[in-house]
Write a structure and sequence with these properties.
Elements lengths: L2 H7 L6 H13 L8 H15 L3 E5 L5 H9 L5 E6 L5 H9 L7 E5 L2 H4 L7 E6 L6 H11 E10 L16 H14 L4 E6 L5 E6 L2
Parallel strand pairs: 1-2, 1-4, 2-3, 4-5
Antiparallel strand pairs: 5-7, 6-7
């Protein structure tokens, strides 16, 4: 048993539906490891239960794993609005969302969250950024406009397999995007921030102004 297996054996179980979704994601989709997985999924559910948001915005839903985890933590009447810019993802993801026990708490939208999320006219209590790394800064600025003061923003993959410690190649816009986001947020007085070295890095921000 390695350390990851030990941790997963000593936290709340993943549940059969999420396990089957994780397996299907890794079998049928490229870069299946992008799915949040057992540990991060239980953390997302716990954070939702701690923060108690009414409305959550997710940018980049991939196979729907993280959305389902956050929806599990919502109180009655809460909603997760998830945006996926890749319309080819819908054929896989929508049936898994609609087949989950929390389908009524999830609104699945195909489109660019940067332009479309503000049009919803919703004040969000929490946002989870996990979309195109090249546009993390633009996504961040958008979430600051739609998430209330005192609300939380979570940003995934902010350690990027350790590549944040390296000088990215000129063509590597994804690593450049993550590094630019991290550097910008570190100096942004509008938010409190902490990076958890969990999985591929999870940044938690609280909007203070």
């Amino acid at each position: 048993m390695n350390l990851d297996e030990y941790i997963e054996a000593h936290i709340d179980p993943e549940g059969d539906y999420l396990y089957r979704l994780w397996r299907a994601t890794n079998v049928h989709l490229l870069r299946g490891r992008m799915a949040s997985g057992h540990l991060q999924g239980r953390l997302l559910r716990m954070l939702v239960r701690m923060i108690r948001p009414k409305n959550i915005l997710e940018v980049g839903t991939f196979s729907g794993y993280s959305a389902i985890c956050m929806a599990e933590g919502l109180e009655e009447g809460g909603k997760v609005y998830i945006f996926e810019i890749n319309d080819e993802q819908e054929e896989f993801t929508r049936p898994w969302i609609e087949g989950s026990a929390v389908a009524d708490k999830i609104e699945f939208i195909i489109g660019d969250a940067i332009t479309e999320a503000p049009k919803l006219g919703i004040e969000f209590d929490m946002a989870f950024i996990d979309g195109d790394k090249r546009t993390y800064l633009e996504t961040y600025e958008m979430t600051l406009k739609v998430v209330r003061k005192g609300g939380f923003i979570l940003a995934d993959n902010t350690l990027w397999d350790g590549h944040v410690l390296e000088k990215p190649a000129p063509a590597d816009r994804q690593t450049q995007g993550i590094e630019s986001f991290n550097d910008y947020v570190a100096k942004d007085p509008r938010v409190e921030k902490v990076i958890l070295p969990l999985r591929d890095g999870l940044t938690i921000l609280r909007i203070v102004s």
